[in-house]
Structures are given as C-alpha cells and as structure tokens.
Amino acid sequence: MNTEVLRAKLARRIGEERRVESTDELLDRVSATLGEVERRYRDAGDAEVRHWSARFRALMEENRFWPSGRILNNTGTRQAQLASCFVLPLSDEFGSVFDALKIAAACHRTGGGTGFDLSPLRERGAPISTAEAAGASGPVSWLRLFDAETTVVAQGGKMRGANLGSLSVYHPDIMEFVDAKRTVGRLHNFNISVAVDDAFMRAVEEQRKIELVSPLNGQVTGRIAAGEIWQRICENAWRTGDPGLLFTDAINRANPLAGHLGPIRTTNPCGEQTLYPYEASNLGSINLAAFLRADRGDVEWDLLRDTVRDAVRLLDNAIDASRYPEPRITEMAQSNRRLGLGVMGYADLLVRLGIPYDSDAAMELIDRLGAAIRDAAWAASEELAQERGAYPHWPHSGRPVPVRNCAITTIAPTGTISMIAGCSSGIEPRFAPVWNKDVLTVDGIANADEDLIDELKRHSGLGRDDALALLRNKPVAELPLPAHVLAPFRYAHAIPGTWHVRTVARWQRYTDNAVSKTVNLSHGCAVADVSESFFEAWRLGCKGLSVYREGSRDRDLLTATHAESEPEPPRQSKQLVGVGDL
C-alpha cells in the first residue's frame, strides 16, 4: 500500500489546524461508515456492524480491493457523494441545457465525472425561435460551455472533473464533431466518442452511403459515404487520441433493461460505465496481484471469491451511504443499483505467473479470472437480494432469480487506486521498464519495473542502481537475461494493437458494464492501424474503444524513459477496411 499517495490525494483535513488524517483514520472512517449501512436492512446490532466494518477494512488493509477515490475521499463526511460517474441528459431546449450544466457543476464539485449524449441537439444552422438569430449553433458549440464550467469548478478543489461527449454518427454535424479536438481547441476536460451501430459499420465495409438525419424533425439532411466519416474518425484518433467509438448495438444487446427503459446511449468519461440519463455508479477494483499463490504457480481462488463477495456488499452499501447532487440521480441510482466492480494488477499477475500479455495463455487466464469473478459477484447479489430485496427494476430484467443490482462488473482505468495499491492499472500492460507518471508533483513520479530489476540482480549480480541504469540505457531485448526470463516482460508499445483489442474483448465476455482500456500505438504507426483496431473491436463484440498514439497530445500522462522510447519511423499507410487509399 502506498500511504503517501493515499494521504496526498484522498485524506481529509481535520480540525481547525487542518491536520491531514492518518492512513488508519481514513480506513476507519470509510469502513465504519459503510458498515453502519447494515442497520438499515435488519436488526443488525453493534457486533454485526463491527463485523462488516472489519471485513471492509481488511479488503483495503490487505491490499486486496480498493474502492474508488470518491468513496475514499467523501465517505463519512458532510459531502458524502460517493459516485464516481454520472450521465446527464440533454434535450433540444435552451433551458434544459443550462439545467444540465448546473447539475454537472454539482457533480464535478465532488469529483464526479459526467457523460453527455449530444445527439438530441439540433444541427448547426437549424431554425430556432429567436428571430434575430441566424440559426442554431449546433452541439459542438455546447462542448465549449461544459468544458469551461469544468475548468472553473476544478479550480475550487483538488479533484478535477471530467466529461465525455458522444454524438450519433447519423447526426448532420458529425464531421464537425469528429474534428472538434482539432478545431474547437484542446477541450482538456472532454473525451469525445462517436456512437455507431452495426449498420454503419457494415456500410463502411460495403462502401455505401448513409443518411444524416436532423434531430429537430427527423428529416434527412444529406447523404454521405460511410467511408468518408470513417476515414476522418481514424485520422483524428491518430492525431489526437479522439474520437473513440461507442458500439451502441453491443451495449444494448447486453443491457437487461433495454426493453423497459429503452437503449443506453452513452457512457461515463472513460467508457467503462454504460449509464442511463441521471444514472450514477460507484466504482472499486480488485488487485489481482494480491491473489498470487505463494509458490507463484496459480491464483488463490477461494480468497478471490471471498473478496468479490465482500466488495459487492461494500459497493452496494455505498449506494445507500451516498448523498447524490440531484433527486433524479438518487432515484435512478437506487432503482438500478448499478455497481462498478473491476480489476487492476492484471499485468503484474501475468508477469509473476510467467505469462506474456499477448499470448493464448493470457486469454485462458482471463477466462478463469473472469468466470470466477462474475459467478461470485452474481452469487453475492442474489444473497443481498434475499436479505434486502431485489432492485426495483429487476422484474423487467428477464433474470429469473432476484438480484440486488442491475449490473455489477466493469473494468475502469484505476488511475489513483492502482497507485495506492502499488500495482499495474486496470487491465493495461505495464507501460515501460522505466517511466514517469505526470501526477502529484511538478516532475511527476518516477517508476521502474521492480520485477525486472530483481531478475537482473538475480542473474547478473548487479546492485539495484546498476540494474536501473541498465534499464534506462538498453532495450529490453538486449538485457543480459535468458529468453524465458524476458518472455513475460511485455510493455505497452511492444504489444501489437490486435492483442490490446483481444484483451478488451476477452474481458468483455465476463463484464456486465464495459471495459475501459487504451490501445497504445507507437508514434510511427499508420492511420490504417487505428482503423484495424477499431474494426477488430467491433467484430469481437467490444462495447467501445479508444486508441492513443504515443506523443499525439501536447503532454503525455505516461512517458517512457528508457532506450525503447524513441519513436519509430512512420510506416506506409495500409488500406483502411472498406475505404479507398488514403
């Protein structure tokens, strides 16, 4: 456990002297508050509350599971807003947009992220009621307003808000939206994604045109080659990392409430939580590296299942302990009781088991881990339903057995909590042998692959400083280590894009919500590599995907500091799938 990160980012200040709470005080505050929720559902006495408080504390103290920063920071305080993410609706009416802006500010003030589907907003130039205006300014113009609000609110606290804006590929302003990160300014507080369906993807493959439809009146405003939009999406993703894609048919095929509440249209800022309007979700992740058996031969499966059960209970309690910023959010959170139970430390577990990230053995491990977590999570939700009742919308879900939650599992980026746990983030591979993370201090935090350093010390007799110097100056392939020792040390930009996508798709098989993972591409990759990654994600059933080409933004959050960080020379572009030569 990295107590320095925990206290620097998430501890509260106590009393008039503004003393920073200790690690023990933080863990006690969180576990005791969530344990008290037990009294709401049955005649739980002090002993039972202490029992669950102790179990919740053990999850964190033993570094097996960490709830999100929102839960760690806000539980047991006057603020008490514990959700990490929200989706807020936008309707094609001036006042409603500003209502959403107000609610977004309240969410951002407590560190929550917000997602918006801009598709209902009328296109640029469409008629509006103001007689002296030339016409509507279009959905892209509203991005500036929400981006500015997020910046202003962030200046009042230590947690920066974040947003996702999505737009249907059939919207008349789709090209302007796809170009937004290049033409509107950097939009530092926004990720953007294009919402595409299977019909559009087939139109790209078959080189057909699609119709653009006005949300104002449902009339067709034009026809455009699907490949033209696709090429622009891929070019911009190559240049800036945006837009990503949301595969709406895949999202709603797995949505148990689609028949009752309609389709889900967008997600939270990082794409792992598919949410209805006014829906919120809390997050937390299991540190898979903590379940490595002592002999490094397998996983402690029983301990993993026990951890899942306790983590589900903790997150369900957090729904009741949370004070949401808007009554409609409270209603949706408690009606669906959607959780976001994820994993982190996956790459660490692979390395310590001797399994390369881009291998069939890794896919088999995902199958075992994913099935174990899924089954234990739903068993826990069934038990909670027997104790407390099913979630109110359960009768419409098609699930035969009452459960407490509409969805449980997700895979989030785990930026802060993976630093606290001292493990690799989410399901990402390790980034580099030596790297810098641009957080906490002006110069960021320097990191090194301690497992690789240990192997160098073991096989070459080097001290730690000399081993670290070697990592800084030699490519991994040239290190003085046997091939079988080097095999599991696979880093982000050395892994082919197709394996990044396969990893997302394999985890998605066992994940109720969605999977947030970046497909890291080398600086010298071609636009066609982006296209290939997006298409592979669609074919394999992913719910969404984002790509990031090294160095394509003004400042990278993660920066490799070893010999292999030099960009590769640009390669000749391959042909995009279903699109003519670039």
Describe this structure in words.
It holds the Pfam family Ribonuc_red_lgC. Catalyzes the reduction of ribonucleotides to deoxyribonucleotides. May function to provide a pool of deoxyribonucleotide precursors for DNA repair during oxygen limitation and/or for immediate growth after restoration of oxygen. Keywords: Cobalamin, Cobalt, Disulfide bond, DNA synthesis, Nucleotide-binding, Oxidoreductase. Belongs to the ribonucleoside diphosphate reductase class-2 family. This is Vitamin B12-dependent ribonucleotide reductase. The chain is α/β, with parallel strands linked by helices. It folds into 2 domains: 229 residues, Alpha-Beta Barrel (Anaerobic Ribonucleotide-triphosphate Reductase Large Chain); 183 residues, Anaerobic Ribonucleotide-triphosphate Reductase Large Chain. It is 42% helix and 14% strand. It contains 22 helices and 19 strands. The strands form 5 sheets. Strands 3, 4, 5, 6, 7, 10, 13, 14, 17 and 18 form a 10-stranded mixed beta sheet that branches. A 3-stranded antiparallel beta sheet has the order 16-15-19. Helix 13 crosses helix 16. The longest helix is centred in the middle third of the chain and has 29 residues. 50% of the residues are buried.
